[in-house]
Amino acid sequence: MTSNISMDFRSLAKLISKIENNRIGSEQDLINLYKENSETVVIGITGPPGAGKSSLTDKIIYEYRKLGKTVGVVAVDPSSPFSGGAILGDRIRMSDHANDSGVFIRSMGSRGSLGGLAPATIDVLNIMKSIGFDVLIVETVGVGQSEIDVMSIADTVLLVLVPGLGDDIQALKAGIMEIADIFVINKADKDGKDRLIAEVNMIIQLNRHRFKWVPPIVETVATENKGLSALMDQISDRFSWLKSNGSDVKKDKILNQFKQMALDRIGNDIMKMLNSNKIFDKWTADLLAGKSNPYSAMNELGNNLQIKWEEKEK
After folding, report:
1. Does residue 52 contact residue 187 with C-beta atoms inside 8 Å?
2. How many domains does the chain divide into?
3. Rounded (5°) CA angle 175-177-182
């Protein structure tokens, strides 16, 4: 049974823009709207550029819509260095869903984040969960090994790989096992598929002792709708497994989210303080005059910055 979305999409789009532009100023909205929703399926789709993540996302939307599920998508794109806005526009690649009242798609600029996600992604997903989407999909930028941030927000992470990556698979190996809940070999009609599957299988076997959930490998050709049924079955199995065995996964996800939110808040407050005291102007002037260097400036910052937790008087 599908959820009733408790906000129209125009209002949702305005709220997301407000959160992106002023996260701290939107905090009261987030406090008022937040509602825990354990029934929402949250899927992260990540992998190197050119793996076909957007095509796969598009097909997964179709599969859920056939089941009558409402779907929200956050597609994180590289930011324009001038405006800070998203420049690839996944909404264009998923334009077939533009007139579907059960699908909401939002592109967000990464704004320089190295973890594959936009800074406000956690907030936006929490809002979308709270208002009642059945399924949420987060498609990350596609920057390779640094995209581990998606682990902290998605219940199920699809790592999309394609045959013919060559040495790229080697670059992914160090962090690959920490990312994937399901390996998706997309464009599986290309040469090199068997070699890629063998490599992924080898990595799984070498790390099998670490798993509670052993990530399956699914072959797809998203543009031809091949393998989608098998992929949806694996996503469903993962969701069922999480309901019975996923307490540690949920605990880790909540902890990671809180750490990220705390770092963002503390960082924002510190930057406001430094800007208001014109400390950057002083450091820059000293650097240009040869009176200081970046490391002595950071040492000075450390000596002057102290964060203390004090118990309130009863």
Report:
1. yes
2. 2
3. 125
Q: Specify the pTM.
A: 0.82
Predicted confidence (pLDDT) per residue in 26-40, tens digit: 888 889 988 888 889
Gyration radius from the chain CA atoms: 22
| Secondary structure tally for the chain: helices H, strands E | 11, 7
| Whether residue 300 sits in one domain with residue 185 | no
Print the domain residue range for 282: 258-304
299 within some domain: yes
Q: Which residues pair with 79 in a beta bridge?
A: 86
Is position 80 within any domain? Answer: yes
Task: Kindly give, in sequence order, each residue whose CB lies less than 8 Å from that of residue 183, ignoring residues fewer than 6 positions away.
Answer: 158, 159, 161, 200, 215, 216, 217, 218
Residue in the structure block whose two tokens are 């592109």: 107
Average pLDDT over residues 246-257: 82
Q: Are residues 198 and 263 in the same domain?
A: no
Element (H, E) at 31: helix 27-33
Assess contact for 152 and 125: CB atoms under 8 A. Answer: no
